[in-house]
Specification:
Elements lengths: L1 E2 L9 E13 L6 E12 L1 E14 L4 E14 L2 E14 L2 E8 L11 E9 L4 E9 L1
Parallel strand pairs: 1-7
Antiparallel strand pairs: 2-3, 2-9, 3-4, 4-5, 5-6, 6-7, 8-9
Length: about 140
């Protein structure tokens, strides 16, 4: 999966793993789907998150898109706080592209000023990601 990563190559990074539970919800617009989800994180990111995903298109046919916001409560590399992740993914003819990033200004506690991206390394079963981040 191609991930667009705007984080400095020298930024701290580490791997994390998550398990996701998704629950379908009523669509907000014709031709779309909506899901609520929760994740349990371990690794460089320890904690939980909850979010909402909106999707459209034909994922079974290989072309679709989705957006999601996810509120995270936990510790990143030992620094405790909250922040929000934003995802924007597309799949065209089976080729996926994903932007998965910290929402600027969303960090609290020891994560105030957090900036960063998430790159999905393994997307089946327990997902594995690489988190690249900076504070300040």
């Amino acid at each position: 999966m191609e991930t667009i990563n705007d984080t400095d190559d020298e930024a701290p990074r580490g791997n994390a793993f998550f398990v996701i539970e998704m629950t379908p919800a009523e669509p907000l617009l014709d031709g779309t789907a909506r899901f609520a989800f929760t994740k349990t994180w371990r690794g460089v990111l320890e904690g939980t998150s909850a979010g909402v995903m909106l999707s459209a298109g034909d994922p079974m046919g290989g072309s679709a898109g989705y957006v999601a916001l996810e509120a995270v409560d936990g510790a990143l590399d030992g620094r405790r706080g909250t922040f929000v992740l934003q995802q924007c993914g597309t799949m065209t003819a089976g080729a996926p592209t994903l932007i998965y990033a910290v929402v600027p200004g969303s960090g609290t506690g020891a994560l105030a000023g957090l900036q960063g991206t998430v790159e999905i390394l393994v997307a089946e079963g327990e997902h594995e990601v690489q988190v690249s981040y900076s504070l300040g």
